[in-house]
Amino acid sequence: MSFDLTILGSSAALPTSRRFPTAQLLKAGERFFLIDCGEGTQIRLRQYGINPSRIHHILISHLHGDHVFGLFGLLSTLGMMGRKVPLHLYGPFELEEFMNSYSRFFGPLPFELVLRTPSENMDFIYESDELTISAIPLKHRVPAFGYLFREKKKPLNVRKEKIETLGLGIADIVKLKRGKDYVSKNGEVFPNSQLTLPPMHQRSYAYLSDTLFVPELAEYIKGVDLLFHEATFSERDKKLAKQTQHSTAAQAATLAKLAGVKKLLIGHFSSRYKEPVLLENEAKEVFKNTEGVNDGDIYSIQPERLSGE
Amino acid sequence: MSFDLTILGSSAALPTSRRFPTAQLLKAGERFFLIDCGEGTQIRLRQYGINPSRIHHILISHLHGDHVFGLFGLLSTLGMMGRKVPLHLYGPFELEEFMNSYSRFFGPLPFELVLRTPSENMDFIYESDELTISAIPLKHRVPAFGYLFREKKKPLNVRKEKIETLGLGIADIVKLKRGKDYVSKNGEVFPNSQLTLPPMHQRSYAYLSDTLFVPELAEYIKGVDLLFHEATFSERDKKLAKQTQHSTAAQAATLAKLAGVKKLLIGHFSSRYKEPVLLENEAKEVFKNTEGVNDGDIYSIQPERLSGE
User: Which of A39, A64, A104 is closest, CB to CB, to B40?
Assistant: First the structure.
């Protein structure tokens, strides 16, 4: 299945002419997950040729304007486009009251809004056959969550040529798919790894924004394929980052290093930096495989089989 | 002074990739008046090189999302840009509660918001030395107002050559500026029109959106230089226009004709029409001097002296 991240907005609080406020779209197979919804999200979706009706899940990190001011417009549009099926909204508790204020001023939405707030004892805030999403507690000026998207482990694939040569039946194949060894009628044991393809790698994406630099967050995101971490400030504005509970580019990179992620994306750049390449360079000094994102960028994580057969 | 209208958003409820929801900016001299504030207004201001801090007056037609969803973002941005001076907000009564919900979720704004709602016995909702703004009651599904901007009459200019040849003093000039005739020391009467330049035309702009076609509205906008009238629908969707309390392009043009305006702008096009030129053509059949607007268009009304000396 596809595992594609599209950057819809990459600015921090103040948008620029080229950077809209924060929003991202993760397409996992046929499912679209919107992550945050800054002002203009629905316009970016149009501009990038994405039908907003395909979105069934919206994950909100926190209730600051640059992450939610596009929500009313998007939901209103979905209603006008004739949506009848429920929309699932995830985020801090305050979201419920915020959405109530929508209905108060603009009338009820013509579809159900299913709200879910992460709690401490919750494994997954979302789970399907293919994917799980867990929430990660961030440290910001208001309650805030990051989100970790991870593909589920898939059943093993039995090597086609072995099915023929060994004359495997359906019951044998089911057992092999579950990881068991195969024992032939004459008692010969074939180890599972000889008859199956190496398992597929479980792809993963973590989104952390907005947050103070918290080294402990690395525990949640060990070895993910792709990490987006906010990098609002340059190292020279480290004090301001701490004071506003944001991160610097180097801090984002330090977390990527601590967690051993494969690739780091940084964004949520303060508009004070005319050239965000400065922030990218600061991060690269700590963690080489870093990229500063722009609106419209797409990052695809390709499926791959784990080696080690 | 300048009298320039910039179209910031020209779509109806559903934005398209090229048309943002409704917002316009009138620059009258050094003053900027924002008219409606659909989602993305602050982004359009950036894209068109307009510093949002220069806006001190925002006029809202009505509390439908496509006219106000950009308000929270814009005000929040003004706060972050360090605004301290008051901002004047005009519009229906419900605006107050709507803005209260802003402070409830996102904290107080660091500047004063001065709200004013049009009332029946109000001449002008705004008045300065140069300009008046009056509100026009529209007919829509919720309380709605149009706005009429009109330059004030300026004092007459005395012809320089006459000052010299007749040896006019300051007291004489002041009287002439007020429209009185000049009487020389030997009793000779010089009619005012011989000693002054023809008066400047008082430029005017009317904004009517959203509204059902109401012929009586023509009375409010007789002979304006520029009229923007919503034209959400084509004539073939006339029933839908009536049902949703909107206008067709031909109805907008009919109003322009009834009011004898100089030029008609139409916009707020439903996204169902891929080619709004269809709407423009329908309007032109009724009122030739019509133009369909696009985001980024600028219309300048030039100062001119009334002829007839």
Answer: A39
